[in-house]
Amino acid sequence: MVSKELKVLLVEDSQEDSLLLVRELMRGGYKLEHQRVETAEGMRRALEAVSWDVVISDYSMPSFDALGALQVLHESGQDLPFIIVSGKIGEDLAVAAMKSGASDYLMKGNLTRLVPVVERELREAAERRTHRQTQDKVRRGKAEWESVFDAVSDLIIITDAEGVISRCNGRVTSYFPGGYDAVLGKRIDEIFFGAEQPEGAVFRFLHSQGEADEDVRFPNLSGWYNVTSYPMRIEGNDRGFVHIIKDITKRREVEEEKRTSDRELLTLYAVAFRLQYTKGVEKVMGDLLFQLHNMLQMDFSCIHLFEGERLRMRASLGLSPAFEKAMKSLPPDEEWNRLAQSGRPFLGEEPDARFPEKAKKGAIAMGLHSWCTVPLKIGQEVMGVMTVGTLSGRSYSDRDVFLLCSIAGQLAVLIDNYSLYDKMKEKAEELYKSKMELKENLQKVKRANIELGRLNTAKNNFIGIASHELKTPITSIMGGAEFLLKYSGIPMTPEQHSILASVYEGTVQLRKLVEDLLSISRIEAQGPLAQKKPANLMHVCREVHNLFVLPLSERHITVTIGGDEADVPVDEGFVTLAIRNLLENAIKFTNDGGEVRLTGRVLKHARLKELTPTLRQFYSAFPNNIATAQSYYLLQVSDNGIGIPVDERVRIFDKFYGVGDIGHHSSGDTAFMSKGSGLGLSIVRGIMDAHEGVVWVEEAAGGGSTFSLLFPLQK
Fold it and tell me: What is the pLDDT of residue 407?
């Protein structure tokens, strides 16, 4: 017979009685580990030291008793069988002990029941432990489920069959200020729709496969949501529903942003295509307005051009006869004329005092609501304004204004080209009428022809790039190519990988071209709104240098950066773009193994006199065209490359102007002698105009070029 192990704590003052108990248990087949204690302190130490199976206690001892031992056992928190074995104990005392927690009691004179009682109590103790463990697991599982339920990012609501809410997770506090109290016990339609009755059974549709319902909006919440409902059985025959409400506002915003970007790119492409007409400026303006109505959902539009100081309407679409008549010709003293001359966009939610009085009445009569007017200008010269409007309650955002300004800038360039062409025709007629002036004017006509040829070439290059490049959905190509290259895991041959990498790199270059086009359009049409803050330009130069580490290392070009670490009030984003364009040009036109230097220093106002002869070539009004300050910061980018011919240094800041042979054009950013769109230096000049500073170029010591940026410091 295999002995069963048993750990017994004996609360007994008699050594002989303890031995009797031990012998009886051993006769019952137990292998004992036991300890005898006879005081409360001794019992506490024993309970802490060993994990006992059972406690057997005498009822009464000189310094301790069974009730005290029960108290000590309860204080320890252990659930052990407690059996009283006493020589004499009354019925009332035994009952009291049992009520205090004793498992059973025996008389010392009759120990035959000891082993059965111990076995029974051990079984019951094991059952209690198993029950406790089960209850603990249930409680822990419930707590874990509650934590998971509350941690879900979606709003989960449980209702009965009538739609009354009985349970919800913790996300309710993110959507309803009152939390659980504002939701529990209420009808689900009431808390989401309020007094308004929902169209369709949003919270009653039973999804057989759990698929989501269509996107919805709730009157009592902001944003967009997707609702999925599932049937559930609660108790007995009671039925209820689980509703999962997912907040999809961010997803909808991303989708709307993509639709807006696609619409803008498509609009720019369509406009660029329309601007290729050669049937006269009136035809181009009319076609442009028609395109804007289709692409941007406009209801009214018109274009005014300056004739002297008077603003005259040259094209319109959708206007009432009364409004068109009132706006046909605006003298200089009209508020609308003064606003147009400022060269800044202006807009409103309804016709107001800025309209001429008769025009205001006509606008109200034809239902004009939101409207926006943007300038047609090249550089700082305002040629006119373009006005668009709608009947609906739509408001024009900053993004809408920027897009309209970009379109207006392109139109201004085309109008300017037509104006130059008309002037050329007039000059030819004068030459035809007066042969006597032929010799005197021949050289002038030749220069004008060269100038017109350059402008036409620039215009054709711009229109060709825009019409060829903008028609491709850039964002979709980049995203798809990048996914296939980096994340799809699709096996590809080296040739396939190389082709796809070329597609991705080409798309990156195309995006840069589009960004340059939009930057120069913004600068010329609206002017960059510089948000000036103190910045360390040497630090900015180092950050820009980090962008060109790879091409610099491939071509072994050394770049050194050093100078005054003074803080300069600039728009850091625009200045970063300017420095990046200059450093990129320096790398392009510097031979492999060459050197590029970026330096900066503070100049006093008196030093401007030394710069005047050079700067007058680039700014005829210098120094009146820059902000007056006590000191200035001069940032210079120098290289020892191929340099720039003297007769082209002033013109390189013109839009689309490029030095040298167009055959050097390359899709690479930094390859030697590669050429871009001809917008970079024009963007730099526009940025310096916004900072009330100047930019110019000189021959560097030892050959190459030095580009200088002069920023005002203290006023």
Answer: 82
CB 374 within 8 A of CB 384: no
CA atoms of 373 and 339, how far apart (whole Å): 9
- Comparing CA positions, the residue from 45, 38, 48 lying closest to residue 17 is 38
pLDDT of residue 234: 62
Residue 292: which of 267, 272, 269, 313 has the closest Cα? 267
Residue that has been written with the tokens 């039925």 in this structure: 239
Q: Report residue 101: phi and psi, to 5°.
A: 125, 0
Cα 520 from Cα 682, distance rounded (Å): 7
- Above 60 in pLDDT, residue 469? no
Look at the chain and count its residues.
715
Q: Helices (H) and strands (E) in the chain — how many of each?
A: 21, 23
pLDDT(597) > 90: yes
Count of CB atoms within 10 A of residue 240's CB?
A: 20
Q: Half-sphere exposure (CA, 13 Å, Cβ side) for 480?
A: 8
DSSP 211-238: ----EE--TTS-S-EEEEEEEEE-STT-
pLDDT band at residue 472 under the 50/70/90 scheme: low
Q: Enter the tokens of residue 308.
A: 């002297």
- Residue 707's pLDDT is 93
Calculate Rg over the CA atoms of the chain. 44
Using alpha carbons, select from 637, 682, 641, 639 the residue that is nearest to residue 540.
637
In the Cβ-directed half-sphere of 224, how many Cα atoms lie within 13 Å?
Answer: 12
**Rounded to 5 degrees, what are φ and ψ at 521?**
-65, -40
Q: Which residues contact 397 (CB under 8 A, 6 or more apart)?
A: none
Tokens 């054009």 -> residue: 665
More confident: 201 or 687: 687
Say if residues 89 and 106 touch (Cβ distance below 8 Å). no
d(CA 470, CA 361) in angstroms, rounded, equals: 41
CA-CA-CA-CA dihedral for 510, 513, 515, 519, to nearest 10: -170
Show the beta-strand stretches assigned E in 46-181: 54-57, 82-86, 104-107, 155-160, 165-168
d(CA 176, CA 546): 48
Residue carrying structure tokens 């290059």? 461
Burial of 252 (0-12, 13-18, 19+ CB in 10 A): middle
Cα separation, 502 vs 417, in Å, equals 37
Kindly state the greatest CA–CA separation across the chain. Answer: 155
Report which of residues 369 and 90 the model is more confident about: 369
Instruction: List the beta strands (DSSP E) in 296-422.
Output: 300-307, 310-317, 329-330, 346-348, 371-378, 381-389
d(C-alpha 77, C-alpha 98), whole Å: 18
Structure tokens at 693: 């500073």
Q: What SS3 class is residue 465? A: helix
Mean pLDDT of the chain: 80
Higher-pLDDT residue of 408 and 562 is 562
Q: Is 500:492 a contact under the CB 8 Å cutoff?
A: yes
CA distance 380 to 689: 10
